[in-house]
Design a protein that fits this description.
heterodimer, A: 367 residues, globular, B: 275 residues, 83% helix, 0% strand
Chain lengths: 367, 275
């Protein structure tokens, strides 16, 4: 019995020893070398970036509003570089609709766009007049939706441009994003295999500006003429127009969506965590209209065959690389870890683009 | 232990049939798997939707993930597997080092048992995955996922060791005492040997649960990649064949882990003469 026990214990000790060796190997391999021009990235949802920068898990984070000002106002981080300093006037979020829904309900799409347009006009006017009743309401809406302080909402309003119309300049940006994805080898199939002659042709077929022209002609109605299932991102203040268009006080008793005869429901009231999840909701048929970043649309229409059209813009700019207090400029991020929302997001693309432009190699942290 | 007995019996029967009617078994396994792939292929061809790719696409993506670096992660599947296994090993080791002594102590000491049990029973029902959002912020991107594994392995292992100590044959204990053995001798010569098979059972259960946890933990984020994170990235960018390929990798790793621990457990039980 004793002999057997010794044998067994030896086996267990051996197993443990092997495991220990592996574990030590892990812990020692976690030191990143800083001799090469390398910056590391690791996935961190923007909502967690403030905490991750504060506790030292990451040296910087790439995020959108309100999460940028979240760190800045708290004093745990500061903006190293705004997205418009890298890509001047770049488009960010867009209004996408399911292709089949748009074909069958062109009027409903025009009405959604019209409500969004009016909401943006109201928003810009309110933001330009601090101290007014409308301004107070605007900031309150933003604070409630994002769960952030009114100071953070103020900051978000200053750093984001809001507009509904997709311009030709925006189209050129979409073409550039498509080319970036191609050069980074991030399309799982060639876009020509999907029947497009190239990036410009792809973007031309993906974006439909005709609904915007129709929206200008839409008149208010006193009853609901369309039901729309809508997706949006959790606590995202780029998508402020949707908040404004959903609010009854702004519309004078009924929301702007309802003013134009649209009844809006949402399968996911808390919103989606990221654009790719919203593209999946389009694919599953649970939403017909979505507010989301342009890059997830540009990627997943090709990679996953999700049938959507971009019919409007939501915002431009309003993203940034936020560094911890010990990082004063981008070059100090050499060998350090930067949090991004992950592949497929505009922030990830922005970070890779800028780092490569500055002569850095971007690698996944821990590799 | 009637369940285990029944299970062993089935295993024995299955083993026998595999020995004698090896070809027949092989034939059925082949027919079953080939049939499955055929049905999948036909269905996928009929429906023709992107998120339901045909087996050849999945096979290509699976092979490709090993031979080429992923464009998003910059590493290949071997490196992802290695990252996951390292994380897994670290969490498992920590759990083992804590759970075995704790189980032995709780089983042997009434006072410790009464003191620790409420705490353990309070935390045990919480699914390890529930801790993911908190751990990844509170413990950082390396220790966060590791502690998810730790929790997954810790509780089944502690319980198994504890029950192992509790189920020591009282006749053996009496015999040892009659022979004049002190507490130390009783512990090392009677309690510990009787507990070893239970430790092995705990390890086997812990491995299965730990493996489920690693995928969930990595889906939130992990330093150095990992098989779970590979799945997340393929979902983000919509590369569905690669997503299925990743699921195949996880299935194979899960089979390997539980198969190996099951085998070790069986051999140990034979050596110990507890079967």
């Amino acid at each position: 019995m004793v002999k057997k026990t010794t044998a067994i214990l030896t086996v267990i000790v051996a197993i443990l020893a092997v495991t220990a060796v592996v574990a030590v190997a892990v812990l020692s391999s976690n030191s990143n070398s800083t001799n090469a021009k390398v910056i590391y990235w690791t996935p961190v949802p923007p909502v967690n970036q403030k905490a991750a920068i504060a506790n030292g898990s990451i040296s910087a984070g790439v995020s959108w509003e309100p999460f940028i000002d979240d760190s800045v106002i708290a004093g745990t981080g500061h903006v190293l570089i705004w997205s418009n300093q890298i890509w001047d006037s770049h488009p960010c979020c867009v209004l996408a609709v399911s292709s089949s829904f748009a074909q069958n309900n062109p009027d409903a799409v025009a009405r959604v766009l019209r409500a969004d347009m009016d909401a943006n006009a109201w928003l810009l006017d309110a933001a330009a007049h601090p101290g007014t009743v409308n301004y107070t309401l605007l900031v309150k809406l933003g604070a409630q939706f994002s769960g952030r302080s009114t100071d953070v909402v103020n900051g978000s309003l200053l750093h984001t441009k809001y507009d509904t119309q997709v311009t030709n300049a925006d189209m050129s940006w979409f073409v550039n994003f498509t080319k970036d994805f191609q050069s980074l080898n991030q399309y799982s199939v060639n876009i020509t295999s999907k029947g497009y002659t190239g990036p410009a042709d792809y973007v031309n077929q993906l974006v439909d500006q005709s609904y915007y022209a129709q929206a200008l002609l839409v008149q208010p109605v006193d009853h609901i003429v369309a039901n729309v299932s809508m997706g949006y991102l959790t606590g995202d203040l780029h998508q402020f127009a949707r908040l404004v268009a959903s609010n009854a006080t702004v519309g004078g008793g009924v929301s702007l969506f309802e003013k134009y005869g649209v009844h809006v429901t949402s399968p996911n009231l808390a919103g989606y965590g990221a654009g790719p999840a919203e593209m999946d909701a389009f694919a599953a048929g649970s939403i017909n209209v979505g507010y989301l970043g342009a890059p997830p649309v540009l990627l997943k229409v090709i990679n996953s065959g999700v049938n959507v059209k971009i019919v409007g813009l939501v915002n431009s700019e309003g993203s940034a690389i936020v560094g911890s207090n010990s990082i004063t400029n981008f070059s100090q991020l050499q060998g350090k870890i930067v949090g991004t929302p992950g592949p497929g997001s505009i922030q990830h693309l922005l970070f890779i683009y800028y780092a490569q432009q500055q002569g850095y190699v971007v690698k996944l942290a821990g590799t | 232990m009637p369940m285990t007995k029944a299970f062993d019996k089935i295993k024995k029967e299955f083993g026998k049939s595999f020995g004698k009617k090896n070809l027949k078994s092989l034939f059925f396994v082949t027919v079953s798997l080939v049939g499955f792939v055929l049905i999948w292929w036909i269905a996928a061809s009929l429906y023709h939707i992107d998120y339901f790719p045909t087996p050849d696409k999945v096979y290509n993506a699976f092979i490709n993930s090993f031979t080429h670096d992923d464009p998003f992660l910059g590493i290949n599947m071997w490196q992802n597997i290695s990252a996951s296994l390292q994380r897994f090993a670290t969490g498992f080791l920590l759990a083992f080092l804590l759970a075995v002594p704790l189980g032995l102590l709780m089983g042997s000491s009434r006072i410790l048992d009464s003191l620790l049990k409420p705490i353990i029973e309070l935390f045990r029902p919480i699914p390890p995955i529930a801790w993911v959002p908190i751990f990844l912020i509170a413990l950082g991107f390396f220790w966060g996922p590791v502690f998810i594994i730790f929790i997954g392995v810790f509780f089944p292992l502690t319980s198994s060791v504890y029950f192992g100590v509790k189920s020591v044959d009282p006749v053996l204990l009496d015999a040892a005492r009659t022979q004049g053995a002190g507490p130390a001798a009783i512990f090392s010569k009677v309690v510990l040997p009787s507990t070893v098979p239970h430790i092995m059972t705990g390890i086997r259960i812990g491995l299965g649960i730990g493996w489920m946890c690693i995928v969930a933990a990595e889906m939130i984020g992990a330093v150095g990649g990992g098989v779970g994170y590979y799945l997340t990235v393929q979902q983000l960018v919509g590369n569905y064949p690669a997503l299925y390929g990743g699921i195949v990798v996880i299935a194979l790793l899960g089979l390997a882990t539980t198969g190996l621990s099951g085998y070790v457990e069986k051999r140990l039980a034979q050596r110990m003469g507890t079967k």
